[in-house]
Structures are given as structure tokens and as C-alpha cells.
Request: fold
Amino acid sequence: MMAKSDPRHGKYMSCCLMYRGDVVPKDVNAVVATIKIKSTIQFVDWCPTRFKCGINYQPPPTVVLGGDLENIQMAVGRLYIGEGMEEREFSEGRMDLAALEKDNEEVRLESADNEEDDGEEYWFD
Reply:
């Protein structure tokens, strides 16, 4: 889960630091020590560990701009078809997504129009 938060407010139970690529444990320990010394993040007193660190030594995958995205999409499609998904479900999914996007845009435009009106609030049951 990704969440936007301000670490200056409240106390936290723990912190998870995940690294990928050319990282050595000494560097990770230095970062943890720096966070502890600065005390900008407050942790609860009853949780002694506070930090969980993970290192994946494999470098992150590189994305080539202008690469062959169509081949990747086809490979993913074959993977799902191999797991029992039918090809028509992809086209139905695309149509459903397009309809949702259109509905979302209509609601956004309507809400913008309503805000420009006399400021009345509308409730839907």
C-alpha cells in the first residue's frame, strides 16, 4: 500500500526500507542510524525493532523508451490465456474500461458545472 503521510505528525510502529541493486548492508545500517539520530520520525515505545530492511541484489529492470511494448502486451496476454482467460474477455475488459473512463469524465464535467452554479449541494440516495 502506498500512502501519502507527513512523518512529523503522529508516531509510527515501524519502518520498512527496501533496496534493490548494488547496495551493501553497511550503507543500509548507516541510513537506519541517521534516521534514528535525526529523530524526525517518532516511533512508539513498545515496538523495539522499528526497522525492517530488505536488499534485493538484482538490479532493477530497465525500461527502454520506445521499446517494443506490443510484444510485452502480447506476452502478458498469452500468459493470461494460458491460465484459462479467453481472448474475448480482453476486448470486453477494454470496452468496460472505456465506458468507465467516459462515465468518469461526464461526472467530472457535471461536478465542475455544478460548482459554477449557485453553490447548492446535491445528495444522491
In short: The first helix runs from residue 25 to 38. The chain has a mean pLDDT of 78. Strands lie at 15-20, 51-56. DSSP finds three helices and two strands in the chain.
